[in-house]
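During the second year of the project, the team shifted from modelling isolated chains to modelling whole assemblies. The rationale, set out in the original proposal, was that interfaces cannot be judged from single-chain predictions alone. As a representative example for this report, we include one of the complexes processed in the last quarter. Its constituent sequences, exactly as entered into the pipeline, are reproduced here:
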Amino acid sequence: MRSIRLQFFSIIIVILLILLLLFNTYPLISSRDLVFQEKESGMLSQASVVAASLSGLDSLGRGGIEEVLRLMDVSGYGRVAVADEHGTLVYDSGGGGAPEELLRALEGKNVFRSDFDETAFFSACAVPFTTQNGQRGALYLYERDQERAGLIMTVQGRIRASSLAIAGLAIVLVLVFAELLLSRIRELVQSMRIVAGGDYEHRLKVKGKDEIAELGDEFNLLTERLDETEKQRRRFVSDASHELKTPLASIRLLADSVVQNDNVDMATVREFAADISSEARRLQRTTEELLDLSRLDDGVQRLSEPVDLKQVALDALVPLRPVAAERQVHLHPELSEGCVIMANTDDMFHVIFNLTENAVKYNVPDGDVWIRLEADEEKIMLTVADSGIGIPEEDRLNIFSRFYRVDKARSRASGGTGLGLSIVHDAVLAHGGSIAVGANKPQGSVFVVTFPRPDEEETGI
Ligand SMILES: Nc1ncnc2c1ncn2[C@@H]1O[C@H](COP(=O)(O)OP(=O)(O)O)[C@@H](O)[C@H]1O
Ligand SMILES: [Mg+2]
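Output from the structure prediction step:
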């Protein structure tokens, strides 16, 4: 976390440095250049005017030059000098030898040079001229301008001070902002730790509407799902233990009553043994179905093969015919050809068997069960309808939950475990299908399973 702040901070510092550098050099350089240009044009034009007057002289005499200069008012210049064509100074208001600019001007062109050293502008210019008697010469003007330099340096100083203040403010703001951001991230991480520690009820208090708030919302959603799954798991374990406990208790009771009674007749022993056997069968079925469910739950890619649902339905009906006959329920299979999907044969057997078994078990004497298989362009549909006792509307939502039964006693009496429809549901979904339940008219229930029709290439048909 410290590193995010560091990254943030370094980026800001770099940006600020660049800005500071820019603010503290660019205005200085451009205003200095502006002054140079101004000096060049100003001094050159004044020098030309003076030179023009000098050209009016008959010859290059000191007296004549002084006269002209006095008239032209060149008092603002630090040094004014005039040289003849040999470079000899005929007039010089300052001291020292002939300046280089002057010598260059004698070659016939205007010369200008300017320097700036933060205390003053030093500018020099020289222009050539020719007197009336054809004598060539050159005029040299030199100026030291402290006033302009001072102005520029004051402005520069102000810019520096204010840019430093702004940079300081920016750094403070960035630090505060980073701290706010980091504290929210810390809160999120803190919440994650709490949830990771097992407190799935914990929720993060989400503030604002930005990306971090979004992250918080997502996190809460995730935790909620985790919470839900965890509760489901606990419920499942407790339901499963309960389901296993009850038959085991009755087995023990039955066995004990035989063992503890000295004079039980054979008929009673037989009766008890038959009860024990039926309880054991139910236990066996429960454990087998639990294993089926956990296999489906694993989410491991199931073996997918072309499955002809008609054949599976015919196979599933074989063990159910005697059950149906016993309960005087009539089976009406209407199985179309060509209902082939990519699935797992065992899973599809479970689907058709469990739905039909329920339709038979939760039926009435002389009732009917219709098992219809049909295919159209897009889907393959399995409908299992019955004229039985029906499912109350409020139970239909829960019917696919583990161990859920509408009438516990009735389910138990017919060897039910309450897991059949869970297996059907999970198996259908595992193979990309969907399942719906509704009421049959005038009475009974309808279960409709739909699978998307596979490509012809997939099934090879
Ligand atoms: N065709 C049906 N008609 C009426 N009730 C049904 C039907 N199918 C399922 N049920 C109800 O749904 C419950 C769950 O079914 P299932 O998961 O197969 O468990 P089981 O059959 O072992 O009780 C049943 O106990 C029963 O109450
Ligand atoms: Mg069942």
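The chain has three domains: 2-153, 211-293, 301-459. Residues 8 and 33 are 37 Å apart (CA to CA).
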